[in-house]
């Protein structure tokens, strides 16, 4: 039994070292003002926002966008048949230049958000399109900095993982690990993406890739597009206070979103999701082993759990350093709890797709077979 325990700890340590290396390398993805390009010929940018029942956040999102200092900007909002006051809020910004686009009836085979993005793409006129979630928050200089980064990298597409700055809220401390998976699994074959904010050259998406049609039923079409473009044309970036891209999302909304995207993030494979569950188990089980070891006096299990647990907390601190604007040194307080929560959400995602109970804004989402 002792030999089996030692072998399990070796596997756990190797797993955590892999995660640690990925998180350390993710420092290179953080946004900095260094080596940004100058925009001598300022390209036009269309900010496209798809909304459905977002009256709790719509006004603040638009106010932030309209405060942008970027000189060539158009703002389009598609209201996807909301049943609340979203459409009224958007129309109230017409005097500021916001263009309201009513949603059409959803065609067969399309997810609601994907069809909304396709419609926005057709309506946009800018050379570049910035797709922005209603929960995203930008500062006046954010869009200009994103454009300068994209031009400097000579890329066609960039997605940006936003940070949490509202650290007084419970939803920030006990949120899900949605971006953890995007960071540690980011590779050329399986690029990490962010749905919160992503920028792409309009003609590349329309002419070269044919719009969203190929990914009409994909929960994160951004990943399919990034995968199609490849490493030479795609960049993943992690926001910093310098960039000023943050997001605010209720805890319940985060759980619902993670339940929707987790299995697709593992390529809709239950076997791949089991690997993710094993990684989370490595993080959460040391506390159980420590308690049982204290009761049973099993020294090998106790000290192994202490070492694995300490390394897990270190990985958690590095992750929160990336996605929180401040307070990451306190992250060990919540790391283990959040990992337990993520394990249950992952299992719920797998079971939800199996039973067909996963929804997106009250619309069913089916598991992709391809």
Describe the protein in words.
The protein is of the alpha/beta class and 370 residues long. The chain is 49% helix and 13% strand. It contains 13 helices and eleven strands. It has helices at residues 2-25, 58-66, 86-91, 112-123, 142-153, 170-173, 178-184, 202-208, 221-229, 251-265, 270-296, 299-323, 332-355; strands spanning 45-51, 73-79, 98-102, 128-132, 136-137, 157-161, 197-201, 234-238, 246-247, 359-360, 363-364. The protein has a seven-stranded mixed beta sheet with strand order 3-2-1-4-7-6-8, with helices on both faces. It has a two-stranded antiparallel ribbon with strand order 5-9. The mean pLDDT is 93.
Please tag this protein with its features.
13% strand, globular, 7-stranded mixed sheet, 370 residues, 13 helices, two-stranded antiparallel sheet, alpha/beta, 49% helix, 11 strands, single chain
Q: Helical percent range?
A: 40-55%
Instruction: Give the averaged pLDDT, no decimals.
Output: 93
- Could you give the order of strands across the largest sheet? 3-2-1-4-7-6-8
Largest sheet: 7 strands, mixed
* Low-pLDDT windows of residues: none
Distance between the termini: 42 Å
Number of DSSP E strands: 11
What is the tally of helical segments?
Answer: 13
- Could you tell me the strand content as a percent range? 5-15%
Please state the structural category: alpha/beta
State the order of secondary-structure elements, H for helix, E for strand: HEHEHEHEEHEHHEHHEEHHHHEE
Radius of gyration, taken over Cα atoms and rounded to an integer in Å: 21 Å
Broad shape = globular
């Amino acid at each position: 039994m002792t030999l089996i325990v030692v072998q399990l700890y070796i596997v756990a340590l190797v797993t955590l070292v892999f995660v640690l290396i990925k998180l350390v390398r993710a420092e290179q993805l953080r946004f900095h003002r260094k080596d940004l390009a100058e925009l001598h010929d300022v390209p036009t940018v269309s900010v496209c926002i798809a909304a459905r029942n977002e009256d709790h956040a719509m006004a603040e999102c638009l106010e932030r966008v309209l405060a942008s200092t970027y000189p060539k900007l158009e703002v389009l909002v598609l209201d996807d048949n909301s049943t609340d006051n979203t459409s009224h809020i958007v129309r109230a910004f017409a005097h500021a230049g916001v263009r309201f686009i009513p949603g059409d009836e959803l065609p067969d085979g399309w997810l609601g958000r994907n069809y909304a993005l396709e419609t926005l793409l057709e309506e946009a006129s800018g050379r570049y399109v910035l797709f922005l979630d209603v929960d995203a928050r930008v500062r006046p200089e954010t869009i200009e900095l994103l454009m300068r980064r994209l031009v400097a990298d000579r890329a066609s597409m960039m997605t940006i993982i936003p940070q949490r700055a509202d650290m007084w809220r419970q939803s920030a401390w006990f949120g899900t690990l949605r971006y953890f998976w995007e960071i540690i699994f980011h590779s050329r074959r399986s690029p990490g993406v962010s749905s919160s904010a992503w920028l792409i050259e309009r003609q590349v998406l329309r002419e070269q890739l044919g719009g969203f049609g190929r990914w009409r039923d994909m929960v994160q079409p951004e990943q399919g597009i990034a995968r199609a473009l490849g490493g030479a044309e795609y960049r993943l970036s992690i926001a910093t206070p310098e960039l000023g891209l943050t997001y605010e999302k209720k805890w319940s909304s985060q759980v619902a979103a993670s339940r929707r995207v987790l299995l697709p993030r593992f390529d809709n494979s239950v076997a791949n999701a089991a690997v993710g569950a094993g990684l989370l188990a490595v993080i959460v089980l040391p506390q159980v082993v420590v308690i049982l070891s204290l009761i049973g006096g099993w020294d090998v299990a106790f000290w192994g759990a202490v070492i694995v647990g300490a390394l897990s907390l270190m990985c958690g601190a590095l992750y929160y350093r990336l996605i929180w604007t401040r307070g990451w040194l306190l992250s060990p307080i919540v790391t283990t709890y959040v990992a337990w929560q993520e394990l249950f959400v992952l299992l719920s995602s797998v079971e939800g797709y199996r039973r067909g109970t996963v929804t997106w804004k009250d619309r069913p989402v089916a598991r992709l077979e391809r």
